[in-house]
C-alpha cells in the first residue's frame, strides 16, 4: 500500500517538498509560522513505532526544520509537538512562537480560529520556505 496523506492534513496544509523520510507541509494558518512533518510510513501513529533508523532520521529532519524556521522567522521559541488526537497519522507540528503572538505564552491549540493567508501572503510564505529548504528536498 502506497503512503497517503491523511485527508485532514491535506486540506489544512500546502506541501512544500519531501525530506528523505518526511513530507514537509505548511499549515494554512497565517497566525503563526507553522510547518508539519509527516513521515511517509503507512499505519504509523506514534514515534516509538517507527524503526530505530526512521526515529533517528525524524529527529534529524525535525531539528533541521526547527533550526531553519527559528532563523528564518527570528522565532523566540520553537514549539514542536506530536499530538495526533484529531488526526491519527503521525505528524510533528513545528510552530515559531513570539512573545507578542496572540496565544503567548499558552499553547496555540484551540485558542483562536485559524486565519487564512491571503493568496499573495501564502505564495510568499511558500516561496520563502521552499527557497530555504530546497537543498534538503529529495526529488
How would you describe what is shown here?
With 139 residues, the chain is of the alpha+beta class. A 5-stranded antiparallel β-sheet has the order 1-2-3-5-4. A hairpin with a 3-residue loop joins strand 1 and strand 2. The chain contains 3 helices and 5 strands; from the N terminus they run H-E-E-E-H-E-E-H. The mean pLDDT is 96. It has one domain: 2-Layer Sandwich (HIT family, subunit A), CATH 3.30.428.10. The protein is globular, with a radius of gyration of 14 Å. The two termini are 21 Å apart. Helices cover 31% and strands 21% of the residues.
Short description:
InterPro entries: HIT-like, HIT-like_sf, HIT_Hint. It contains three helices and five strands, in the order H-E-E-E-H-E-E-H.
Secondary structure elements and pairings:
Blueprint: H1 7-12, E1 13-18, E2 22-27, E3 34-39, H2 52-73, E4 77-81, E5 92-97, H3 119-133
Antiparallel strand pairs: 1-2, 2-3, 3-5, 4-5
Which tags fit this structure?
139 residues, alpha+beta, HIT family, subunit A, 3 helices, 31% helix, catalytic activity, HIT_Hint
Amino acid at each position: 500500500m502506497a503512503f497517503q496523506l491523511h485527508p485532514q492534513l491535506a486540506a489544512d496544509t500546502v506541501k512544500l517538498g519531501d525530506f528523505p523520510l518526511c513530507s514537509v507541509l505548511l499549515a494554512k494558518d497565517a497566525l503563526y509560522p507553522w510547518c508539519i512533518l509527516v513521515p511517509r510510513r503507512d499505519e504509523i501513529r506514534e514515534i516509538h513505532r517507527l524503526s530505530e533508523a526512521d526515529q533517528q532520521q525524524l529527529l534529524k529532519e525535525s531539528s533541521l526544520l526547527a533550526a531553519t524556521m527559528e532563523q528564518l522567522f527570528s522565532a523566540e521559541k520553537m514549539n514542536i509537538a506530536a499530538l495526533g488526537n484529531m488526526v491519527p497519522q503521525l505528524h510533528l507540528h513545528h510552530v515559531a512562537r513570539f512573545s507578542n503572538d496572540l496565544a503567548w505564552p499558552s499553547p496555540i491549540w484551540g485558542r483562536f480560529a485559524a486565519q487564512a493567508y491571503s493568496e499573495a501572503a501564502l505564495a510568499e510564505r511558500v516561496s520563502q520556505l521552499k527557497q530555504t529548504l530546497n537543498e534538503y528536498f529529495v526529488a
